[in-house]
Amino acid sequence: MLEADAISVRLAGREVLRDVSLTLVPGEFTVIVGPNGAGKTTLLRALVGDLPPSAGGVRFDGTRLDDWHGRDLARRRAVLSQSQHLAFPFTVHEVIALGLRAGNTGAKNAGAGLIAGVLARVDLVGYEARFYQQLSGGEQQRVQLARVLCQLGPPVLDGAANWLYLDEPTASLDIRHQFQILDLARQHVTAGGGGLAILHDLNLAADYADRLIVVSGGRLAADGPPADVLTGALIEDVFGVDASRVLRA
User: Fold this and answer.
1) CB-CB neighbours of 22 under 10 Å
2) Which of 9, 19, 149, 239 has the lowest tally of Cβ within 10 angstroms?
3) What CATH homologous superfamily does 2-91+161-245 map to?
4) d(CA 127, CA 32)
């Protein structure tokens, strides 16, 4: 379980997230949506412990994030960020192996077999020896997802749910691979893991989310099932567009 208790975040002297409280549970795929600059990534970074709140606190499985050892936390949750920059000429195999070293002991023991398996899951069979910098943006994104999956291991390990966090995972992907990535996230959650993603495409969010959180102006504007949240009034108020131009019929 992931709990945020009245968290606020200030950056460069400006409050970008204000008094946000929520509880996320395994087995439920939660998607955060909202306009640019609304505070979506700030909220995700606070929830995973990358950005300490200026007020309030976050608990993971009942323990404050500040009290978790970094290595233990890395074995229970993995984060796919918006962008990943590598300064050295790593091969695809080497990039994914970074996830093995960071993650669950059970995953480490699988070694090369696990790497080959996750490459198949992200449609990159045979890419092990290719250099990461020579891949397209979409291919790099899928390599990073493979790394995250290797770090995380199974959705549930020793009775504890592992959590997958995705920050705009479909941004550089064609439509087929957008579906593929979100299918993998859905499979993880269906098997008992925790899942949280930020998406810009409201139709994809509506299709895949069990729970939709709308962030606007650093606050939660709505929270609930997509069918209840994505009303014409909310879309016009938060995004400033007519819902008929956004959602599929």
Assistant:
1) 18
2) 19
3) P-loop containing nucleotide triphosphate hydrolases (3.40.50.300)
4) 32
